[in-house]
Amino acid sequence: MTARAIDRTRYDRATAHLDAPVAIVDLEAFDANADDLVRRAGGKPIRVASKSVRCRALLERVLAREGFAGVMSFTLAESLWLARSGFEDVLLAYPSADRAGYAELTADPKLAAAVTVLVDDPAQLDLVDAARDGGREVVRVCLELDTSLRMLGGRVRVGARRSPLHSPAELADLARAVDRRPGFEVVGVMAYEGHVAGVGDAVAGRPLRSRAVRLMQAAARRELAGRRAAAVRAVRAVVPGLEFVNGGGTGSVQQTAAEDAVTEIAAGSGLYVPRLFDNYTSFTGRPAALFAQPVVRRPGVGVVTVLGGGYPASGAAGADRLPVPYLPEGLRYDPQEGPGEVQTPLLGSPADDLLIGDKVWFRHAKAGELCERFDALHLVEGDAVTATVPTYRGEGHTFL
Questions:
Q1: In tens digits, what is the pLDDT along the chain, a chain of 400 residues?
Q2: Alpha-carbon distance 165 to 173, whole Å?
Q3: Quick one: which of 177, 231, 311, 341 has the most CB atoms within 10 Å?
Q4: Distance separating alpha carbons of residues 67 and 332, to the nearest angstrom
Q5: How far apart are the C-alpha atoms of 81 and 95, rounded to whole Å?
Q6: Which of 204, 198, 191, 160 is nearest to 366 (CA)?
Q7: What are φ and ψ of residue 314, in 5° steps?
Q8: Which of 358, 363, 356 has its CA nearest to residue 339?
Q9: Whole-angstrom distance, CA of residue 105 vs CA of residue 80
Q10: Quick one: DSSP state of residue 369?
């Protein structure tokens, strides 16, 4: 039997008492992936990206491991909820316009001490002050540096459109503006190089594209390393007590950790290893999060139909945003239908060995977004479910 066939046997046996649709996390794979992230970080702490996990129990599990420290959150409401739940170091990695959340943050000493908010524009400070409603707590602030690679005088841009602050001088100017303003304290700098950390450089069947991506990423890493170091020096000249400089992502852990200016690494998808993270030369992870759909029809030879499965990931629409049939090996979508809202036909010779009620296991394209579809994750060890834990959704929260 192949390793994947052995996994299928384990997962089927572990969930035999559970009706599909069902979602699992293989704890052996999850822990092995965590160990690999720590190894690649080379001694620098890893801040866990909560959007890639979306399950409090698993955030707690990984933060209990040596090498992990702090959470990177995605909304202010989530940040406050995590802080109230006992997470003591929460970095909100995206700007917020949540006035009610800011009123709560600035009125509560415990929340203000635990949560750091992201700022890349003085107007965001105005919004916080307007929302204070009498709250006098100092707001911890992280500044974000734009990491995009700009070429040909800026006419060509590679990278996500995030912060407007591209130069060290621009970042230092905002640091001065925050430093002069009562009620705020600059404690960190963040620079997420998504075009390096989140873009696979070894796409199966596309050697020319893969080579082009590798060349782009090598150039981007060189340019950013120098600019990030200069930006951190410029901010430290204004704020000598800067607490952290966050960078990286699952696909660039070891490269970003090698920069002296960076004090911590962000990563999250590398714990679940969804399908978009199969295409990297920098690491190989183990799929840890899967979901199963039940076979409900056998329309003909070489075809089965499973219930549901239309769970596309965010991003530019395309085939790479779709979940993929994973177990048994050899199944594929009908190109006329793809994964459907209510039913999904699957083609391939393995279909003939599947019976009504059998499970087909899928991998989601992205990591934590799977948890928006399921209330619970069943944690598998060996061939048994040893615990069932709620996702954010299972705890009544869909923050976005």
A1: 899 999 999 999 999 999 999 999 999 999 999 999 999 999 999 999 999 999 999 999 999 999 999 999 999 999 999 999 999 999 999 999 999 999 999 999 999 999 999 999 999 999 999 999 999 999 999 999 988 877 766 777 777 788 889 899 999 999 999 999 999 999 999 998 877 766 767 777 777 777 767 777 777 778 888 899 999 999 999 999 999 999 999 988 999 999 999 999 999 999 999 999 998 888 889 999 999 999 999 999 999 999 999 999 999 899 999 999 999 999 999 999 999 999 999 999 999 999 999 999 999 999 999 999 999 999 999 999 999 999 999 999 999 8
A2: 10
A3: 231
A4: 39
A5: 17
A6: 198
A7: -70, 165
A8: 363
A9: 7
A10: G
Quick one: tokens of 53?
Answer: 């996990």
Cα–Cα dist 248/195, whole Å: 10
Neighbours of 54 (CB within 10 A): 28
Q: What token pair was written down for 390?
A: 């709620």
What residue has token string 């794979």?
29
Q: Helix (H, G, I), strand (E, B), or coil: what is residue 382? A: coil
Alpha-carbon span 50 to 395, nearest angstrom: 15
Looking at this protein, which amino acid is placed at residue 183?
A: G
Contact, 105 vs 75, CB < 8 A? no
Cα separation, 173 vs 299, whole angstroms:
65
Which residues make beta-bridge pairs with 191? 247
DSSP sequence for 166-201: -SHHHHHHHHHHHHHSTTEEEEEEEE--HHHHSS-S
Half-sphere exposure (Cβ direction) of 17: Cα atoms closer than 13 Å:
7
> What would the two tokens of residue 297 be?
């029809």
Find, among 308, 197, 306, 300, the residue nearest to 254 by Cα.
Answer: 197
Q: What sign does the dihedral 281-286-289-293 (CA atoms) show?
A: positive
Burial 131-148 (b: 16+ CB within 10 A, else e): bbeebebebbbbbbbbbb
Both tokens assigned to 264: 């911590």
The token pair that represents 46 in the structure block: 């890893």
Q: Are strands 303-307 and 324-327 parallel, antiparallel or unpaired?
A: unpaired
In whole angstroms, give the CA distance from residue 233 to residue 237.
6
Nearest one of 151, 155, 141, 227 to 189, comparing CA atoms: 141
Check: CB of residue 125 under 8 Å from CB of residue 182. no
